[in-house]
Amino acid sequence: MEIAPNRKALTHERILDTASKAIRRAGFQGVGVADIMKQAGLTHGGFYAHFASRDALLAEALAHAGQQSAERIAKSTARRAAAGASPLRALVEGYLSDAHLGGTETGCAVAALASEMPRQSADVREAAAQRVRGLVATVERALPEGAAPGTAAALASQMVGALQLARALGDNAEGRALLAANRRTLLAQHDTTGSPG
Predict the structure, then answer these.
(1) What is the pTM for the complete model shown?
(2) CA angle, 163 then 164 then 167, to 5°
(3) Contact, 89 vs 80, CB < 8 A?
(4) Could you give the CA distance from residue 22 to residue 38 in angstroms, rounded to a whole number?
(5) Across residues 88-102, what is the average pLDDT?
(6) Sign of dihedral through CA atoms 76, 78, 82, 85?
(7) Nearest Cα to 112, choosing from 30, 13, 54, 38?
(8) What mean pLDDT do residues 59-85 have?
(9) What's the CATH fold of domain 62-190?
(10) % of the chain at pLDDT higher than 70
(11) Burial 59-94 (b: 16+ CB within 10 A, else e)
(12) Where do the H-state alpha helices sit in the chain?
């Protein structure tokens, strides 16, 4: 028998949903406790019933954002794979998609926050490192058998960098062209199946 979450757990989840979107949209420095609580429809005073500190919120929100992003990537990859794409093609096309270009608030936390991660507290840095490891592991699972050691880390880095540069150009023809060029190049280099996407 599944137990329904209690009110405190539901409120905690609402705060995390709000904070995970906010950090991807505005960065770590753009997230204030009072603003998060207000956006979640709660009072500032209730914050400490859920988190010991702002850094505890940021670390947990980053983990939450990573989980949401991983679920989104998995669904997108499965949809493309069902249409005949290889696992790697499905991943690269989904990650470097036009939808992800404009989806900063709900997209990959690593791409949204990578440049800020080293300047955070130890707890937030560790949560960030876990997100990076998770992304590399996702790429590793999608690679064709026999890929050289280190390929997953290099490919994950290239995908994140391509998305960041495309976002810097904007959700426009120039940004979309940069993503398309990276999709073609990465797939030509790494997708040995040659399956269409």
Answers:
(1) 0.89
(2) 85
(3) yes
(4) 12
(5) 94
(6) positive
(7) 30
(8) 91
(9) Tetracycline Repressor; domain 2 (1.10.357)
(10) 96
(11) bbbbbbbbebbbebbeebbeebbeeebbbbbbbbbb
(12) 7-26, 33-39, 54-82, 87-95, 98-102, 109-113, 122-142, 151-169, 173-190
Burial call 96-110: b when 16+ CB within 10 Å, e when fewer = bbeebbbbbebbbbb
Interior CA angle at 55 toward 54 and 58, to 5°? Answer: 90
Using DSSP's 3-state secondary structure scheme, residue 84 falls into coil
Q: How confident is the model at residue 123 (pLDDT cuts 50, 70, 90)?
A: very high
Task: Report domain extents, the chain.
Answer: 62-190
Closest CA to 139 of 182, 94, 99, 109: 94
| Residue 196 burial by Cβ neighbours in a 10 Å radius (0-12, 13-18, 19+) | exposed
For residue 189, give both structure tokens. 């280099």
State the chain's mean pLDDT as an integer: 92
Judge contact between 90 and 77, C-beta under 8 A.
yes
Quick one: tokens of 119? 């300047």
For residue 32, the tally of other CB atoms under 10 A from its CB is 13
> 125 pLDDT exceeds 50?
yes
